[in-house]
Amino acid sequence: MDEEVLKKSPPSQEKYGRAQFAIRLMVLVLFLAWVFVWVVAPTDTYKQIWLPQLKAKINSSYFGKQGATLLLFTVPILFIAVLGSIYLHIAKKYNYFKMERSKNGKKCEGVFIGKRPMLVRGPLGIVSGTELALLFMFIVLLVWSFSNYLNNSFAKISQKSAAEDGEKVWQKKLDKSALMLGKVGNICLAMLFFPVTRGSSLLPLVGLKSESCIKYHIWLGNMLMTIFTAHGLCYIIYWAVTNQLSKMLEWKKTGISNVAGELTLLIGLLMWLTTFPRIRRKAFELFFYTHHLYILFIVLFIFHVGISYACIMLPGFYLFLVDRYLRFLQSRQRARLVSARVLPCEAVELNFSKTHGLTYNPTSIVFINIPSISKLQWHPFTVTSNSNLEPEILSVVIKSEGAWSQKLYQMLSVPSAIDHLNVHVEGPYGPVSTDYLRHETLVMISGGSGITPFVSIIRELIYLNITLRYRTPKLTLICAFKNTSCLSMLDMILPSYGINGDISSLQLQIEAYITREEDLKQNNSPIPLQSIWFKPNQKDSPISTILGPNSWVWLGAIISSSFIIFIILIGMINHYYIFPVDHNTNKIFSYPLKSSINMLVICVSIAMGASIAVLWNKKQNAKEAKKVQNMEGSSPSVGSTNFKVCDIERELESLPNQILANATNVHYAGRPDLRRLLLELKGSNAGVLVSGPKEMRQEVASVCSSNLAENLHFESFSFNW
Length: 721
Hints:
globular, 6-stranded parallel beta sheet, single chain, alpha/beta, 721 residues, 5-stranded mixed beta sheet, 50% helix
């Protein structure tokens, strides 16, 4: 906590509050304007009156035909993203004041908006009231757009007009229906990339986390491919009944390119097929590698419809490209892996060095790549360490469950373990702020390795309790494990080097359930944890934020500067290269070439804006890295042995570990009765967090959604969809 910020005067606090309110108001106005454009776009008034007038004013030798589309569909969202970055930077400081209010039992301000589950079981998963309402409104937008497009198109079809083209009325209507399905599908495509832009300012602006938005991406993807498949089938049927199947082989230099559209659909179907749960879970690598075809999908889609119309879906993809390029730059750096702990339950804890400027909130995640296992695979893991409690260490716990994690466990658990491991890290990504201090009671329910998000929450509350003297909620951790060896996961609750302070006032109670063993086997002594210290390597560097401590400000600068560069470059190319061909000759500039130029300029603009920001912050990080104490200096000599065996019994003699052991009750041969435990909770405000198997999350959600549990506020953590 920045003490200087906390000592600022109340007028500074009011200044931050007013700035936040002004930005929220601007964002709301821009968003409503953007939604209004989508609502009126299918109407005749828009197409016949407003759009021609706008094109007459905007379309010029500099902006071309896409000028109006850029202004209406792209500029508002990018402006919102920039404002969101500024808002989140201000909120980072303003939250210090809000946190200060929570001392001495005063709860942070805030309300719970629509998090109560409405649907628990079904193809959509666990859905809250707010999510259900937004999904309904989006479907209404699709139906509204499709019906308006059809009404406007069918009104122009008559027996005479159909006969002039040598077709029947129903054939003409089928042609128009296929076209309008494509236009409606573009609405889904325009939204598709927003949920998977991990570092975007749009998600935290509305209180969302990247991992929780994966289901929105799945919903949009399913709707998109359903509509696009219907679009393609309708055209194939139309060409067949009108004897025009030869059009399937057309790739025009101007207008719609049918071959590009067919290839786009085939690639989309291939990606869609691998997303079905049975295929994805049994052949994850097939799903993972196939999904990288999204690049070809977008390129061919732009060739299919042309860059002018593709600008409709540009804002989401533009922000995704910015995020993807920043992630690429961060992933090129090798992270400094200081040590690892091998747990008896076939899990490992990896401890990385990090810079002091890297801060993150509980439940944040990082993506890890180990080239010696797979050069292409990146896997997400919850960060268990706390950036305040452990300013120089970032830790993750990885359970040996899949092929990738099993290989990692085998590498580290054998007696002749390696003394160095090349690791690349992306992130961390997580919530901008947390609201756990709002609750009187906090109940955390986990199954297996699902305990890791709660380790980070408990460590955060330990920091607030023993360092800042905050009054924290009463904590109850209910965890289910298969066997006794999994109890070693509880050793991860406290940092490996210990805690300087008394945690007795934390009010923590742990209820551990061993589901596949009837009792503790007395003749089995505890299996010690193995600690491995890795040799330092000059090519490794501490994990740091790619854009420094003021990352939100830099992100806003990258978005705005790169888009300005794009507008300038494409304006010059249009004015001096494309416009003369279109207007001073009898030729029309090739659509695929124009699309290729625009895509290239977009990539160059983003690379220029982001690279300058990253290089500047890299210099600053290098200066800070020199000040960071060398973590390997205090480690044991790796020349004599690769292992440091930690005696669990000796660890339990320390006061914090002894308090934790006394707070733990172990139950054998049974699962927790979650319904009874939750309904017995007292108080008007109890937070219920769950992380684990799908059945466990559904059971907890069904209890929290019942009328008997008005005091329970539900939140779920999951990477399984």
